[in-house]
Amino acid sequence: MFRLSRLVLACLMVSTSAAHAHTLIANHTPMRSAAVLEDVGVPNQLVTETDLLFQPRRHPFNIDDFLAEQLPHWQPVSEAIMHWSGASGIEPRILITTLITNAPELEQDITLDRISELKLLQAIEQTASTLSALLYQPNTQTSNATLGHATQTLVSTLHSPSDWQTWQTRYQAWFGDQKPLGQYTLSSRSLVAPPAGFMQWPWRQGYAWIPNGPHAHSGSGFPLSSIDVSYDWPQWGGTTYSVTAAHDGYVTVLSRCQVRVTNDNGWATNYYHMDGIQVRNNQWVGKNTKLGTYASQRSVALCQGGSSTGPHLHFSLLKNGRFVSMQDAVLGSYRIQTGRYSYDNDCRYTWLTQTQTGNKVCLWRRITNP
Q1: N or C: which end of the chain has fewer CB within 10 A?
Q2: Measured between alpha carbons, how far is residue 146 from residues 38, 39, 276, 293, 344 in Å?
């Protein structure tokens, strides 16, 4: 992202290409039809949506202990698994089981050479992104109302729909006691926005930063759960500033460049493209506690791959592990109107409302975190 001049900041719109600052791998895997799944005997509720969603506070997962016991040769990719689980919102147990089902040779206890490690890293990123893209795809392709969308999502990610039994057997053997399938049905779809006063902007109180257009956690599609913020949108190598917790909660450090804070009320926020993370797993933090800074260097901001066009914080809203729309969410004293699509910067459709005055504020304006 180039440095924005005062003239550009004064404009009501910024071009879509300039606004795109964060992208996961695009999904090209089609959703398999319910009829195809029924032909190979897939149960109607092989998995539920909650099985697929990553809720580190409710269902903690110690990746290092698991790999040491079951897949010791995967230890070099432990951070990648947790990173992409956080970025995609997909439960790491689901991700690991799917990876092994699609490539059973990966279970062999052999030392990974550099080429094999790179292939596995790519598979982790692609599988997490595909599961996420299908899960958040509008549920319009379910021809049988009894077949769950989550089941279609999972089986569509397998190389063959007939692999579902292998997947189920492997999951039950590894994780059936930790997180049984189909036991949890928490829903976030009916919850419109966090409670008033619960969240601030993810930077220090009293400072003013610049947000761009709301967008999906993956950079495209829906829900518009995320927003990018920066003090001044510098080029790579520019000065960056402190990121703070938007609300009270418990920390999950997902990687060197990604953190999640989860409150026991189910609301959570993700902080991506981070550097100098100074909090630890399971630490309780209060609103406005410093978590670290947003990264100045591209290699740090993208510590496990992905895409970004310049230093910024990619900030996302979740409820019960599900990325949810920022529509009507109040951060500090500003209510968000999300717009028509990802990175919509047209002030006729997307804006902030100053709740104390009722004034409308266009995006790409400097706003103060009270």
Answers
A1: C
A2: 11, 15, 47, 46, 36
Residues of the chain with CATH 2.70.70.10: 6-20+190-368
The topology (CATH level 3) of 6-20+190-368 is Glucose Permease (Domain IIA) (2.70.70)
Active site residues: 273, 312
pTM, two decimal places: 0.90
pLDDT at site 142 = 46
In the chain the first and final C-alpha atoms are separated, in Å, by: 27
Count the neighbouring beta carbons within 10 Å of the beta carbon of residue 289.
16
In the numeric block, the tokens 């292939």 are attached to 119
Which tokens in the block code for residue 296? 């100045």
303-327 pLDDT, tens digit per residue, is 998 888 899 999 999 999 999 999 9
Region for 288 from its dihedrals, namely left if φ exceeds 0, alpha if ψ lies in -120 to 50, beta otherwise: left
Cα–Cα distance between 319 and 186 in angstroms, integer? 10
* Of residues 151, 166, 146, 171, the one with CA closest to residue 66: 171
